[in-house]
Amino acid sequence: MNQIIELLSRLVACPSINPKNLAPTGLLYGEAGMVELLANLLRDWGGQIQINEIAPGRPNLLACFPGKNPNRSLLLDAHTDVVAVEGMIIPPFTPMIRDGKLYGRGACDTKGPMVAILLGLRRVLDEQGQPPVTIWFAGTCNEELGATGAAALMASGFRADMAIIAEPTELKIIHAHKGALRAILETTGIAAHSSTPQLGVNAIYKMLPVITRLEKMIFPATHPKLGAPTLSVGTIAGGSQVNIVPASCRIDVDRRLLPGETREEIVHQLTGNEDVMCTVTEFYPPLEESLDSPVAGLVAAACRRVLGRAEFSAAPYATNAGAYKAAGIPAVVFGPGSIAQAHTKDEFIELSAVAQAVNLFAEIIQNAT
Ligand SMILES: [Zn+2]
């Protein structure tokens, strides 16, 4: 337990707030500090380290631990970014332990689950010297706002035979989740003096039928575990002042998609027949992994041995797993802690759950083939 508290405290105390696609400034923002900490730790453990900046100040970390069988590989992913800290009622980066829980931003999402991977791996290295198959640990950046770290890793051509993505799933095996597409829709008009609106084209009026159509949109497809797709208009902005006919109007749209739906299809749906421009800002592919796949079986067998039971589940939220699955790597999502505590004003994780997850990841790595 001391090892868990020590490492998790170090990770939480290393701020890595997602800078929202701006260049990171100051010590609180960006993943570079976390990547440096992890790179030093894993180099000490014998890992071969690669660091790739995918945007200024936004690095991915990849650490390789060659296996006894070097021809098989397991990718263990945990994102290094955390969400903003505004409104938190605890010190975000001064880890605090109370009643068996460790408090701090990222404790649950996803530094606690990351610790479970790392100390599970540490145990296998201590006991066996080498994992049975090659283990890749990926500390991916920018998961919270687009999963572009995982997408860049796949675009680099990197592949593994299977992947487990660490997130707070309450030790349930998430084998299916929705994807997410976020887009800006924009209408363009012609500015004019508001006393002669007939000389202009009102971009806000042009947006109205778009919004009405989106509000009433019906999705025929449903999924047995994930239900129907969803759509939400999150922001609207248009015009500059009351006496000018507005020349532009934009809305931000969040569309949750099911396995089988494609990015192109959805852009087409959002645009409809209206004169509106659609720009995709974030895209998380959905996940659907067969319960019979080797990766699902590997995690389930570990759960049965350590917990006495294995529970499969589906989630409405998106993760890095979608990007890996879309690139052909079988993947599931798994880790300690609950999504109910992620992104909250007093984020925490139960240390006993992390300890269980260390046992589970050790078991998973030991039995990987
Ligand atoms: Zn997360």
Termini separation = 29 Å
**Multimer state:** single chain
Question: Over the alpha carbons, how many angstroms does the gyration radius reach?
Answer: 23 Å
What fold name goes in the CATH topology slot of the largest domain? Aminopeptidase
Q: Give every kind of bound small molecule, once each.
A: zinc ion
How many domain modules? 2
* Classification by helices and strands: alpha/beta
Question: Could you give the topology of this structure?
Answer:
Elements: H1 2-12, H2 32-44, E1 48-55, E2 58-65, E3 69-79, E4 96-98, E5 101-103, H3 107-128, E6 133-140, H4 148-155, E7 162-165, E8 173-177, E9 179-188, H5 203-215, E10 230-238, E11 248-257, H6 263-271, E12 277-284, E13 287-288, H7 294-307, E14 312-315, H8 321-326, E15 331-333, E16 348-350, H9 351-366
Parallel strand pairs: 3-6, 3-7, 7-15, 8-14
Antiparallel strand pairs: 1-2, 2-6, 4-5, 5-16, 8-13, 9-11, 9-12, 10-11
Helix pairs in contact: 1-3, 3-9, 7-9
The structure holds zinc ion (ZN).
Describe this structure in words.
The model has no long low-confidence stretch (mean pLDDT 97). By secondary structure, the protein is of the alpha/beta class. The strands form four sheets. Strands 1-2-6-3-7-15 form a six-stranded mixed β-sheet, with helices on both faces. A hairpin with a 2-residue loop joins strand 4 and strand 5. The radius of gyration is 23 Å and the shape is globular. It folds into two domains: 258 residues, Aminopeptidase; 106 residues, Alpha-Beta Plaits (2-Layer Sandwich). The protein binds zinc ion.
